[in-house]
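Changelog-adjacent note: as of this version, every example in the card shows the full chain rather than a window. The one below runs 315 residues end to end.
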Amino acid sequence: MPSGLRDNNLKNSRHPSSPHWSLLGCGALGGVFASLLTQSGQPTRVLLSERHRATLHPGIDFTSLEGHTQLLAIERGFIDKPGTIQRLLVMTKAGQVVSALTPLVGKLAAGVPIVLLHNGMGIAEQVVQLFPHNPVIAGVTSHGAMQNGHFVFRHTGKGETWLGPINEAAKAHSALADQLATALGQAGWDEQILTRQWQKLAINCAINPLTALYKLKNGELAGPRFADVLQQICVEVADVMQAEGQPTGSDELLRRVMTVVELTADNYSSMYQDMEQGRETEIEAITGFLLGKAAAHGIAVPVNQGLYQAVKEKR
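Full-length structure tokens:
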């Protein structure tokens, strides 16, 4: 953790009424978002699983991009007794979204918006089936985050965040993007969120497996060693995207990938962090999703297939 100013007084932005945001999933990115929402004055409650009940921390230790560290008092609840939820922000790993939400089936009031912010694709459709009477919103974000300990989080990179509707009911909730923007500095609403999801998937297919397998910071992919494989990944992803009705080209995807590599040069990808910590990676929702779509269209994606297998074998 970088040295910085520490405020030893717990900064408390609690509100006497129900929290405006209930956040499910307090990993690296979830912890950073909870901290940023709290700092912006938006009451936020973190919903934890039962296993956290005996390991509570007096506050979230948050280090900003500028290196300033604060202890933030953020209300905590537990998923078995969630209380009143006004809007639900789900920030678990992709593979944990459905299992994390399942205890809320029958408890979450109809009409409460569910915002999904995870890597990969193919999860939102399952959530719509679980909660047919709730607006389901998908999001993509390029913010960087690290978890340095128990409820110790560091914001490592400022990025863009986009939300968009998965079902018809979600279209009435575009104002949620404005509220997130107050905390994040930028957030937008895009009715064509599927296109942004595919673009993010392409970036994740390129950056995450390589950095995890070779134990690299993102910026190390900019060297000539990885030029050919990155190009091949983008060619394969572009082929699948085109078959899925997403017009793009491999050169465009490669430019996007290299832009992210440059902007996040000092960051470690989430898949690298997961693999280093022995946690389940999101390879199924990222490269696994791509492989499934490729198979459906009869498209060969050997480079992505090889990376998928290598990550699976390393776990």
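Structural remarks: The longest helix spans residues 193-214.
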